[in-house]
Amino acid sequence: MKKVLLALLAVIVIVVAGAFVFVSIKWKKPFEAPYPELKASTDPALIARGAHLAYGPAHCIDCHATPGTGQSFKRGAIVPLTGGLEFVIDPGTFRTPNLTPDKETGIGDLTDAQITRAMRYSVKHDGSYMVPFMPFQNLSDEDVVAILSFLRSQEPVKHKVQPSEFTFLGKALLAFGALKPEGPVGTPTKSVVPDTTAEYGSYLAHSVANCFGCHTNRDLKAGKFTGEPFAGGFKFDDAMTRGYVFKTPNLTPDKETGIMTAWDKTTFINRMHNGRVYETSPMPWEAFARMDDTELKALYAYLHSLTPVRNDVGKIVLPPE
After folding, report:
1. Using the 8-state DSSP alphabet, how is residue 260 labeled?
2. pLDDT one-digit tens code per residue, 171-211
3. Under 8 Å between Cβ of 308 and 258
4. Residue 206: which of 309, 275, 279, 134 has the closest Cα?
5. Taking phi first (over 0 means left), then psi (-120 to 50 degrees means alpha), and beta for anything else, what does residue 26 get?
6. How far apart are CA 90 and CA 110, in angstroms?
7. Do residues 38 and 144 touch, judged by C-beta distance below 8 A?
8. Residue ranges of the alpha helices (H) in the chain?
9. Domain extents for the chain?
10. DSSP state letter for 261
């Protein structure tokens, strides 16, 4: 019996050691993805559109502003996208890069193709995996160019950000193929005309503002969505929000558990413009407050067009656990 147990232990040690070696070798494997044939423009209208997206509905500012500059943004300042915000989740510690055109610490030495591939396919310029915090895979070509053009137009700011780091769990998920870059669904459209329709609201909610990403429950370990679209329940614990625990509300028009049926259009628009109530709320209120009424009317129309989903998420704001 003792020999059997020793043999079993030896097998377990060999398997664990083999898995460790496999993960150590394979997790850094580069990924292939096409380079979009999109170029930055000096057209003032496109640059202005890109700035509006970056500081408004696409809320690039919410993740790529250097920590400590948030108060200036709340007061209306246009703070540079110098990066450095840190997200600590099970697969690793992820830090947002400097998006100003500084050649040493920013995007100044990256090509247009490398930047747009990262936006579209979640693959970095060196071929490594980029955690898909950005929902821009299906952004229209014109809006990708608008954001790229705005990024190129900024003043370069030297601000070094330490690289992101994967935990062993994150490395294992990469090595075994559980984490893969996300590309567009279908072929992204060339351009989208802003209007107040539900169709444009759908574009904003899925491809620009990422309402879908936070208001749909998901497993952060694997990054997979586990709930019904827009039915809420995704939990931000106090480690991410420095105090309170937040759960995203149900945005479907369910009469009993959704919040949209209690808001008419004017109430919704005013709520979005009025900004945050809780200081550490994970929603990018300052950026969304800069959305114009056309965008907000479109979002309202789209959210009301959704199929009602009964999902009582309970209290939205809870004391730290």
Report:
1. G
2. 888 888 888 898 999 999 999 999 999 999 999 999 999 99
3. yes
4. 134
5. alpha
6. 29
7. yes
8. 2-26, 44-55, 60-64, 70-74, 112-121, 141-153, 168-175, 198-203, 211-214, 238-241, 265-274, 285-288, 293-305
9. 36-190, 192-321
10. G
